[in-house]
Amino acid sequence: MTALTDLVREEFGVPVDPRVSAMAAAIAAQHPGSARAILFYGSCLRESELDGLMLDFYLIVSDYSDAFPKRWMAVANRLIPPNVFPFQHGGLIAKYAVLSEADFYRLNGTETRNVSVWARFAQPSRLVWAVDDTARDRAIAAVSRAAPTLLAAAGRIEAEAPLDWWRRAFALTYSVELRAERTGRAQSVVDADAERYQRFSEPAIAAIPAGIRGGGWARRRLEGKALSIIRLGKASLTYAGGIDYLAWKINRHAGTKIEIKPWQRRWPLVAALTLVPRLMKSGAIR
After folding, report:
1. Among 168, 183, 218, which residue terminates a domain?
2. Please, are residues 152 and 214 in contact by the beta-carbon 8 Å criterion?
3. Greatest C-alpha distance within the chain
4. CB burial of residue 102 (10 Å; 0-12, 13-18, 19+)
5. Which pLDDT score is estimated for 277?
6. Residue range(s) defining the domain that contains residue 157
7. Do residues 22 and 152 share a domain?
8. Is the same domain home to 174 and 257?
9. Can you say how many angstroms the Cα of residue 160 is from the centroid of all Cα atoms in its chain?
């Protein structure tokens, strides 16, 4: 895995907007004593103008009990990871998800059918804050597992070009979760930085664990859609303004014009659970 680890380490060190680093430090300050590392990921990595966008971070902590003052939040994060929180700093808005170091390592690997983490971190990301070198190395080791896991889960088709393998793998993962993005989003992820995926191909393929076979996507879809709805319900308890964020994201990606009513803000769990079936039926999310 040395070659792949070196590529992840190099990618982690690519400079980011100073406001992103400042926001990461501010997030870490919200969890003193438990914050280990913060990763910046998502479509905003490709944007030069961040104003008005929702930045995405993962906060990696030592232990959930140390990260949260309320026991129920630690239990929720342990049972249905991750907890997600809104954040504002320096005129920018963001959300950050919380995972322990142990869960971050596990959820990037082949031991889980849940695509949520390894599908995201097979894509580019930046390590924008770390408490020490040990935390940095652990984050690198965890993320180095993501690309081999993604490609292994998709399975290789004979004579398939590496970039097509990546495109097909991301398309499979997009089919597992509730998504508002338009058709073709998975392909655009690769095409936006094809040279990067070409560089990662050989080391990632070489790092696929022996004996791992692709498949099981019908089961992944069933579990993934159900888990997405459960997480949505949990977010109504942990994410202030979550129902407004849901509407904003769907409107942005699907071109809809959802407007949240006052009663939906008062009862976000009920609103979310009633909104999702209607959006799936209309095709706004899949």
Report:
1. 218
2. yes
3. 55
4. middle
5. 64
6. 2-218
7. yes
8. no
9. 27
- Choose the weakest-confidence range: 8-17, 122-131, 196-205, 248-257: 248-257
Q: If pLDDT is split at 50, 70 and 90, which confidence band does 273 have? A: low
The set of long-range contacts for 86-90, using a CB threshold of 8 Å and a minimum separation of 24, is 86/239, 86/240, 86/241, 86/242, 86/245, 87/23, 87/26, 87/27, 87/30, 87/57, 89/22, 89/23, 89/26, 89/27, 90/19, 90/22, 90/23, 90/26
pLDDT tens digits along 1-44: 699 999 999 999 999 999 999 999 999 999 999 999 999 999 89
Task: Report the number of distinct structural domains present in the chain.
Answer: 2
Q: How many whole angstroms separate alpha carbon 196 and alpha carbon 190?
A: 8
CA distance 84 to 81: 9
Note every long-range contact of 183-187, with CB atoms under 8 Å and residues 24 or more positions apart, other chains counting: none
182 and 235 in a single domain? The answer is no
**Token pair of 1 as six digits:** 């895995």
Rounded to the nearest integer, the mean pLDDT of the chain is 87
Cα–Cα distances in Å, from 159 out to 148, 150, 152, 182?
A: 18, 18, 16, 28
211 shares a domain with 229? no
Q: What are phi and psi for residue 207, nearest 5 degrees?
A: -90, 0
Residue type, 63: D
